[in-house]
Write a structure and sequence with these properties.
The complex is a heterodimer of chains A (about 230) and B (about 325). With about 230 residues, chain A is mainly α. Chain A contains ten helices and no strands. Chain A has one domain (about 5-185). Chain A is globular and about 60 Å long. Classes of the chains: A mainly alpha (about 230), B mainly alpha (about 325). The interface of A and B includes residues 9, 13, 99, 104 and 133 of A. Chain A: It is a multi-pass membrane protein.
Chain lengths: ~230, ~325
């Protein structure tokens, strides 16, 4: 059995790794690395859920870790990777409003702002358990950084990853502060999968007419010839 | 005056001068292996230095005393910096008075000397290299200051030996703030030693040269001194990272066996870090010049975050 002190240190390290992965999501231009970083970030969330589950002896958290592992670490990245291979986009070099350096600076300010706000709002939690307080700050900060990724990136596929990162922030906040019911977590996960499916399909045909869209789907082998004829 | 700090300083200096070329070669071997080449032998760095030391020095017709003095001054300054960074032995009294701020200025001074040397020979490439080096250093200096400030804040002291002493009290790799700080320090090693993706030390292309551009007109013994300075600078930066992140093995009480074990351990840790640098170099392409500040921003972000996390945790 792991000692509680060790678990708490591991949790702090995981939180720091979450921030490092969020910074990488804002600056990485290579799409494969972006997807890999997202998968890694989700894996860290799995580790966090397991560690909190161990501390609190809560089996629901272990279930949440399980579905996060299946959906966010394996499922969604796998699907995005397939789409990415089909549409042959390797890099996202376009940024709007903010370049990666500027995005990092804004994130820094946002983290500071969240910390200042939370130190007033969650004063009790801060005095009671600084680890859970920091978890909540980093959770909301991750949401904000995901939001920055959404509006600084131009390609739809990278915007999706920003959205997914935002959801990771919600999950992190949920793990540390509010205990979301398992069913809600599950529904969010299903929502995410549908979002990824829809967006990747739209990514393929966003700038085409219906006819051209069908042709483009065929071009990318997303839709087989028989299905089109039927 | 106690004899121990002098002994510790001399030992440190000798050790750093001895092992520095080895780490440079390890990086080259890893890069070569990544490109499916055999790479140079492990002692190639020493052979190169020996060869260069034997060769004649040729000066440009336009060269002033700067070209003659800069190589010696550069190595001498770095040797002073070595006295501030205990690599394997932290004596009770430091061999030289100084702290992280002095260390920072010593590094900046060698950079300044190199830029002067680039301009001194009056060649186009030298001037171009100096111009690029100074443009980059204008951006990197604030980041370096913040990284060192974060180090000082985490350890609660400006003295480098005290920082290492503080690191020995923490379980290696188990402090979140030190983990964050290591990311910034690693980026700093890449930047300060002119490695890919910031600079390519092995190229002689006009488009990519920064460090090499300034050294194009340097030859023989002078080039050997600069090569050695570069290697010493890299070892110093690596020692900062290693002794803060994994200070296992660093000794505080001198003994022959302790020193030998500490030296072997540092050699292993340094080789592992050199392999990591080589892997990073092989995985990235050289960045466009105007995209390099993005990397500095990462180091700045992580070091600012280190201070913030130290407050939050």
């Amino acid at each position: 059995m792991i000692e509680p002190g060790m678990v708490s240190t591991l949790l702090r390290i995981c939180l720091i790794l979450v921030l490092i992965s969020a910074a990488c999501l804002l600056t990485t231009r290579n799409l494969s690395s972006l997807v890999r970083t997202y998968a890694l970030q989700s894996l860290i969330l799995v580790a966090i859920a397991i560690l909190i589950g161990v501390i609190e002896n809560n089996s629901i958290l272990l279930l949440i870790a399980g579905i996060t592992l299946v959906s966010k670490v394996i499922g969604i990245p796998w699907f995005i990777r397939i789409i990415q291979q089909r549409i042959k986009i390797q890099q996202d070099l376009k940024f709007s409003y903010l370049q990666p350096g500027g995005a990092l600076m804004v994130s820094m300010l946002l983290i500071l702002l969240v910390y200042l706000c939370f130190s007033r709002v969650l004063k009790d939690l801060f005095t009671e358990n600084s680890l859970f307080f920091m978890g909540s700050v980093i959770g909301v900060s991750l949401m904000m950084m995901g939001l920055i990724a959404i509006f600084t990136r131009q390609l739809a596929i990278t915007k999706v990853i920003g959205y997914l990162s935002m959801e990771n922030g919600v999950l992190l906040f949920g793990l540390f502060v509010t205990e979301l019911p398992f069913i809600t977590e599950f529904v969010i996960m299903v929502d995410l999968i549908i979002l990824v499916l829809l967006t990747t399909i739209l990514t393929v045909g966003m700038d085409s007419s219906i006819d051209a869209y069908t042709n483009r789907l065929k071009e990318f082998h997303l839709w087989s010839e028989e299905e089109v004829q039927a | 005056m106690s004899f121990t700090p002098v002994l510790a300083g001399l030992f440190n200096l000798g050790f750093v001068l001895l092992i520095s070329p080895l780490y440079m070669t390890v990086v080259k071997i890893v890069k070569a292996r990544a490109q499916r080449r055999a790479g140079p032998p492990l002692l190639q760095g020493y052979y190169n230095l020996a060869k260069l030391f034997r060769k004649e020095v040729v000066y440009s017709d336009y060269a002033s005393f700067i070209s003659r003095a800069a190589p010696y001054a550069s190595l001498a300054i770095l040797m002073v910096a070595v006295l501030l960074v205990p690599v394997i032995w932290i004596p009770d009294a430091a061999p030289a008075e100084g702290n992280i701020i002095v260390f920072l200025y010593l590094l900046a001074f060698t950079r300044f000397l190199l830029a002067l040397l680039g301009l001194d020979a009056g060649s186009t490439f030298g001037g171009m290299g100096s111009s690029r080096e100074m443009s980059l250093s204008a951006v990197i200096e604030p980041t370096t200051v913040v990284v060192f400030a974060a180090m000082a804040y985490v350890a609660g002291t400006l003295s480098i030996p005290e920082m290492f002493r503080h690191a020995t009290t923490i379980i290696p790799g188990m402090s979140p703030t030190i983990l964050l700080l290591s990311v910034s320090l690693f980026i700093l090693i890449i930047v300060e030693t002119g490695r890919v993706p910031v600079d390519n030390p092995e190229t002689h292309l006009e488009l990519t040269m920064i460090h090499e551009g300034m050294l194009l007109d340097t030859s023989g013994r002078n080039l050997a001194l600069f090569e050695l300075s570069h290697a010493v600078k890299q070892t110093l930066m690596m020692a900062l990272l290693i002794n803060i992140l994994i200070p296992i093995g660093i000794i505080q009480e001198a003994s022959i066996i302790g020193l030998v074990l500490a030296a072997i351990l540092f050699l292993i840790k340094g080789t592992a870090l050199s392999v990591l640098i080589g892997i990073v170099e092989s995985s990235f392409a050289k960045m466009r010049f105007f995209r390099v500040p993005g990397l500095f921003m990462m180091a700045f972000f992580f070091s600012a975050l280190t201070i913030l996390s130290e407050v939050m945790l």
